[in-house]
Amino acid sequence: MRMKTRRRYHGKDRISALPDCLLLQILSNLEVYRAVQLSILSTRWKNIWKHMSVVTLHHRNFESIESFATFVSQFFSFRTGKSSLQALNFECFRYFDAELLKRIIKYLFSHNIQRLDMSVPCSLEHFPLCTNFSYHSLTSLKLIACQEINHWGRQGPVFPNSLQFPALTYLYLGFFTLLCTTDDGYADPFSVFQSLNTLIIKDCPLYNHITNVEDSLFISSVTLVNLTIVLPLSYESYKFKLSTPNLCSFNFTGNPFQNLSGHNNISNTNFSYIKHVRIGLTSKKVAKFPSILSNWLLELALMESFTVTSNTLKILNLFPKSWKIDFPYLHNLKLLKIETHEFLSLPNGREDFLLQNAPSAKKVIFPGPSLKDLAKEDRRRIKQFRYRY
Q: How many CA within 13 A on the CB side of residue 221?
């Protein structure tokens, strides 16, 4: 009996026949080294990677940091000079040549970079962002100054106070040092960004050469809508002043050392306009936090959604007398979200005091990071900031 054989298809290479714009869109979902590997498929693919406008470069995909640096250098050298680069995701957790990094930064801003996400070791003495930088194309910037293995405890690079990014709407800053340069001890690096919509500050210590002035962070922006502050673990006092009249979302992790509008009696922020709030307390030294936090809730009286961690609830319930008075807050609350952790149980419904003025609000309980993840994060942050200024 004769077996039928499957007819082989000898049609055209339909993928290679796609226009360049579609091929580049496909390649943008791959890391660069994969895109370069595809260049051996045919002459059609040989040079297409040189025109990629969305690029991902991670050192973990290479056998050594030397091979990664060589690849990065060749990649930017072989790119077509007129090709614009819209977005770069660059990640390297080991020492990376400072001169090569400066070359990359210079290339990016000379090719109209719009979105930059970069994590590099802060063993570099100076991060290659100069105060005379002025780039009108950049809209999103995420910088994380991770520390190289075996180099924990070094001061993070200083974030310049005079960067000129007029189109910047999103800024994420992690593990940078913020210099207090004003006479009254304020660090003010963000007021130069005239279009900023979202600001995330994570583990950014303050540094002041003048020892008799209290360090404080000043955030001033009429365009800022979303603000996230994650305080360094090593700080026992970290104060900030806000002048953000259009702020709508406020996310805070750390310990509240001040009233929101009472710091130095200066504030141009109407906190009652803030609609979405998240608060997560971290310290075990809780004696003064409940009174400060109750003042926060008074100032954030018109919030519509409130996310609170189980650790924060535990701290608040150590002082039940603080909540016996019917405070005039949270009348507009529509959603209460409780972020739980596996090692902290909820205080048996005692969180309902937050709903005493909004009984129709919906309450949602959802799991936060696991104990393993939190321990890993705490160890990393403690190592990062075990030094004191």
A: 25
pTM: predicted TM-score of the whole model, two decimal places? 0.83
Under DSSP, is residue 278 helix (H, G, I), strand (E, B) or coil?
strand
Q: Report the distance separating Cα 320 and Cα 327, nearest Å.
A: 14
- Lookup: tokens for 52: 């990629």
Task: Assign 253 to helix, strand or coil.
Answer: strand
Q: Residue 146: beta bridge partners? A: 121
Mean pLDDT of the chain: 77
The answer to whether residues 266 and 293 touch, using CB atoms and an 8 Å cutoff, is: no
Please, which residues have CB within 8 angstroms of residue 13's CB and are 6 or more apart in sequence?
A: 42, 44
- Of 112, 118, 200, the residue nearest 157 (C-alpha): 118
Ramachandran area for residue 142 (φ above 0: left; ψ -120 to 50: alpha; else beta): beta
Q: CB-hemisphere CA count at 13 Å for 257?
A: 16
Axis-axis angle for helices 98-110, 65-78 (nearest 10): 30
Tokens of 175: 């593990």
Measured distance CA(329)–CA(78) in Å, rounded: 60
Distance CA 369, CA 375 (A): 10
Q: How many residues does the chain have?
A: 389
Give the largest Cα separation in the chain, rounded: 98
Residue 260 CA to residue 146 CA, distance in Å, equals 30
pLDDT digits (tens, 9 = 90+) for 175-213: 888 888 777 778 899 998 999 999 999 988 888 776 656
